[in-house]
Amino acid sequence: MVHAHSPESMLRSARAKCTQVEHGGLANAEALKALADGGIYFDPNVGLVTQNYLENKPKYLGIGNYNDEGFAFMEKAVPTLPPIFKKAMDAGLKMPMGTDAVAGAHGQNAREIIVRVKDGGQKPMDAIIGATSLSAESLRLGDTIGTLAPGYEADIVAVRGNPLTDIAALRNVAFVMKGGKVFKK
Fold first, then answer.
1. pLDDT, tens digit, for every residue of 142-181?
2. In total, how many domains does the chain have?
3. Contact (Cβ atoms closer than 8 angstroms) between residue 174 and residue 159
4. Which domain holds residue 61?
5. Could you write out the DSSP letters of every residue in 91-118?
6. Where does the pLDDT of residue 185 fall: very low under 50, low under 70, confident under 90, or very high at 90 and above?
7. Assigned domain for 154 exists
């Protein structure tokens, strides 16, 4: 798994036969095609990572390269992310959902799925599959997690409403089942 933002870094990742590229915020058609041709998973992080940094700017400002220039760059990047996502869908890329484990984003994973559907044009079921079985497959765990079937470790997030007709229903969590134990707020 590689963090790659620029087309050149994505092309190098494809040539190196990496299995997954994260971000790709500057991707072009050539880079996306190289990933697709290589069967490389692509997690573009279009709805949560950059937005979370911007929302929590005071907490990050002054740490490493988190400076005013960096935040200005992020602000300009946000509207470019859904179009890159659409190009990646058109290229036929397999796009599992990830969140980059960004501090401050815990419990907000649904935001990524919602943006993929509302701004990126992905079908709701495809976005849900990207967050479940496709993510498990990308981690080479598809034979044990990510699917509700006999023999799988079935962790469940139950929501109020139908995310296939209103993807924002994913924010209305009724309960979570982890390892057979139900957790409610």
1. 999 999 999 898 789 999 999 999 999 999 999 999 888 9
2. 1
3. yes
4. 2-144
5. TT-------TT-TT-TT-THHHHHHHHH
6. confident
7. no
Q: What distance in Å separates the CA atoms of residue 72 and residue 61, rounded to the nearest whole number? A: 12
Are 18 and 1 a contacting pair, CB within 8 Å?
Answer: yes
Q: What's the CATH code of the domain at 61? A: 3.20.20.140
Neighbours of 106 (CB within 10 A): 10
166 located within any domain: no
CA distance 172 to 182: 16
Digit-coded pLDDT (tens) for 75-129 = 999 999 999 999 999 999 999 998 877 777 888 999 999 999 999 999 999 999 9
107-117 pLDDT per residue, tens = 899 999 999 99
In a domain, 137, yes or no: yes
Pairing assessment for the beta strands 41-43 and 181-183 based on DSSP bridges: unpaired
151 CB-contact burial (10 Å; exposed 0-12 / middle 13-18 / buried 19+): exposed
- What number of other Cβ atoms are within 10 A of residue 81's Cβ? 23
Locate 60 and state its tokens. 């990050």
Q: What is the pTM of this model?
A: 0.92
14: exposed, middle or buried (C-beta count within 10 Å: 0-12, 13-18, 19+)?
buried
Residue 160, in any domain of the structure: no
For the residues 4-31, what does the mean pLDDT come to? 96
